[in-house]
Amino acid sequence: MANHRIDRVGMEIKREVNEILQKKVRDPRVQDVTITDVQMLGDLSAAKVYYTIHSTLASDNQKAQTGLEKATGTIKRELGKNLTMYKIPDLTFVKDESIEYGNKIDQMLRNLNKD
Q1: pLDDT tens-place string over residues 23-34
Q2: Of 28, 30, 42, 83, which is most buried, counting CB atoms within 10 Å of its CB?
């Protein structure tokens, strides 16, 4: 029963953080950032927020990570306004590598078919 609540809170945080990044955070480093998933701790005290960025440049990825870390306070404050939770979880931003990994596997499969 508790897993449903954790999943619901994670989905709500994902939706809210995407909206906050689009409307409230004015940092140009996070303009192309999209939140892909949120993994909550069992007691809802911490959340890993997975994000992706459209650029593949390492410098852009580093800038996005820095921008997200700087915007964490603003994001938590806005989450506090928008969510009815006793305590807003601590946010940790992690680059989501799954899309790049999927593209790599897809490319390897295409190369197999050519041979």
Answers
A1: 988 888 888 899
A2: 30
